[in-house]
Amino acid sequence: MFFLSEIEHTLMLPPHLLNRPLDEAIKEQLDLIFLDKVSLSLSLSLSLYFLHLLTYTLLADSYFLVKFRLVMFRPFVGEIITARLKESTVDGLRLSLGFFDDIYVPVPFLFSPNRNEPVPGHRNRVNWIWNYMDEDYSVDAEDEIMFKVHDVSYPPIPLEPKDVKPFAPMVVTALLHGGGDLGVKHLDCGEGSIV
Amino acid sequence: MSAEEEENAAELKIPDEFLKAKCLMNCEVSLILEHKYEQLQQMADDPMNQMSQVFEKSLQYVKRFSRYKNPDAVRQVREYQLAEFELCVLGNLCPETVEEAIAMVPSIKVPIISIAALYTRGRAHDDEAIEKMLNDLSLIKKFE
Questions:
Q1: In the prediction, which pLDDT does B3 show?
Q2: Which residue, B83, B82, B81, B80, is CA-closest to B138?
Q3: Which contiguous run of DSSP H or E holds residue B40?
Q4: Are the beta carbons of A49 and A81 closer than 8 angstroms?
Q5: What's the complex ipTM?
Q6: B51 touching chain A per CB within 8 A
Q7: Architecture of domain A2-73
Q8: A80-184 architecture in CATH?
Q9: Residue-by-residue pLDDT tens, chain B, 144 positions
Q10: Minimum CA–CA partner of B10 in chain A
Q11: Which of A28, A115, B23, B86 might form a disulfide with B82, Cβ 3.0–4.6 angstroms?
């Protein structure tokens, strides 16, 4: 779900920015601090919106009290979201919204009954296949997948890089079965599948 | 399970800070981001440079999953008497049947009963009220 939040923040403008138009310099600093970051009551911030409607006041030296609005993305437990497939492995599916792709469907949360088939030529990839009403449906990259948010977690920042995968500050665990209109929308038949 | 306080959309228990923030439907975010994109195009010679990747991807996403394209339609959808969160989920997903709507947003069963009771005589049937609302929402979409 997207949210519009009003935020008050004390900002320090580095001296080399002080001779630029204040509006611009402040917007730039706010962008650096808030954009595409998980922060502020745990949401992913998308873009700055309407900085000039609110205010900035000089507190002292180069400190400003800035009030602005921010569009944020914050998934809720129980919310239903549509995404696309990013990865398919023996551990389950990884889904993506484009701007956010740390959404995982572990095997127990997949549609069922299911089975998987390894993809030739790719060591870790498998194709997950759903057997629904005696028909086999496989999940591929063009499908739009509706899922229910089961959990949102915020792993602590690791002190040393542990493995090759970049650190994900916000991770969504998704559910593909359990009621309602969840499942894979197939482009050819255009129908959502009821699980 | 996160260490945060228990929050669950099904029962409409939302953390306090989000009660002050305003919920936006995908179509509203689409209008906001498109407006910003136009501003960037006017201001700079090379708007693509100014636009961050995350901005571009989010614009792509909300455009793709917007149900209502014009601002008037969006305003009409907002006039329904539902909690912001419920309105936004229904506005994003546009369920076609009452069963779908209740499965997606179980909490709507509660307020619909009271609204229906206000405006109908005799016994209020909540499923009918939900169905009427879904019809209205899809009509808004048809005639926008």
A1: 37
A2: B80
A3: helix B26-43
A4: no
A5: 0.79
A6: no
A7: 2-Layer Sandwich (3.30)
A8: Beta Barrel (2.40)
A9: 443 444 554 444 444 444 456 888 898 888 888 888 888 777 766 655 656 788 888 899 999 988 877 777 777 777 776 777 788 888 888 888 888 888 888 777 765 554 554 554 433 346 777 788 788 777 777 766
A10: A78
A11: B86
| A195 in Cβ contact with A177 (< 8 Å) | yes
Q: How many CB atoms within 10 Å of residue A43?
A: 24
Q: What is the pLDDT along chain A (195 residues), one digit of tens a residue?
A: 888 888 888 888 887 887 888 888 888 888 888 888 887 565 666 666 655 445 666 766 778 888 888 888 888 888 889 999 999 998 999 999 998 999 999 998 888 788 888 888 888 888 888 887 888 888 877 788 888 999 988 887 777 766 667 788 889 999 886 544 455 544 333 334 333
Domain ranges of chain A: 2-73, 80-184
Residues 106-135 of chain A with CB under 8 A from chain B are none
A154 interaction partners in chain B (CB closer than 8 Å): 2
Inter-chain CB proximity B18 and A82 less than 8 Å: no
CA distance A50 to chain B (A): 9
User: Taking Cα atoms as reference points, which of A70, A96, A99, A68 lies closest to residue A81?
Assistant: A96
Q: Is A168 on the interface with B (CB under 8 A)?
A: no
> How many CB pairs below 8 A link A and B?
98
pLDDT digit string (tens) for B5-23?
445 544 444 444 444 568 8
Inter-chain touch A99–B57, beta carbons under 8 Å: yes
Query: DSSP alpha helices (H): ranges in chain A?
Result: 22-34
Q: Are the C-beta atoms of residues B11 and B107 closer than 8 Å to each other? A: yes
pLDDT in tens, A113-138: 888 888 888 888 888 888 878 888 88
Cβ–Cβ gap A71/B32 under 8 Å: yes
